[in-house]
Amino acid sequence: MLVRHQAPEHETLREAGIRPTTPRITILRAIEQGGHRHLTPESFHQELADQGHEFSLATVYNTLNHFAEADLLRRVGCGDRHYFCTNTREHHHFYDARTGRIEDIPDPQPVIAGLPEPPPGMMIEAVEVVIRLRRLPHG
Predict the structure, then answer these.
(1) Can you tell me which family this protein belongs to (predicted)?
(2) Residue 3 domain-assigned (yes or no)
(3) Among candidates 93, 111, 112, 113, which has minimal Cα distance to 103?
(4) What's this model's pTM, rounded to 2 decimal places?
């Protein structure tokens, strides 16, 4: 009897409710091998292409969004740009709009107090803080 062992990425996707296709497994593997970082679909698409993977930008973008919806990544909006953060625990970010650099705010995380009551029938799911930075003028 032949016993097939499935890649851990295959199981991760199944547990997240995502059908494990070859592109999704490859993309998840590349994310996991890259360590903690903040991805844009465009930069990650280029990284995959540099590794010899020929996925369309739409495939990469859609896959990153599926992963974020399944809590395998966190989507972080900074102005008109979106990043995908590999750190899925609750945390906040610093963002330099000039350079486009985003980084995690180190612990302890800011405490958010005095939140308004949500509308009837709704609950607060998450609060995300992005602190925009600007370089000090020289002088």
Answers:
(1) Belongs to the Fur family.
(2) no
(3) 93
(4) 0.84
In the chain (139 residues long), the average pLDDT of successive 10-residue segments reads 64 95 96 95 97 97 97 91 93 91 90 91 90 84
Please report the pLDDT score of residue 6 as a whole number: 63
Q: Which residues form the domain of 32?
A: 8-133
Tokens 């930069």 sit on residue: 43
**Alpha-carbon distances of 98 from 37, 53, 87, 95, 132, rounded to whole Å:** 19, 31, 23, 9, 10
3-state secondary structure the chain: CCCCCCCHHHHHHHHCCCCCCHHHHHHHHHHHHCCCCEECHHHHHHHHHHCCCCCCHHHHHHHHHHHHHCCCCEEEEECCEEEEECCCCCCCEEEECCCCEEEECCCCCCCCCCCCCCCCCCCCCCCCCEEEECCCCCC
Phi, psi of 102 (to 5 degrees): -130, 140
Domain count, the chain: 1
pLDDT at position 4 is 47
For residue 1, tell me if it sits in a domain. Answer: no
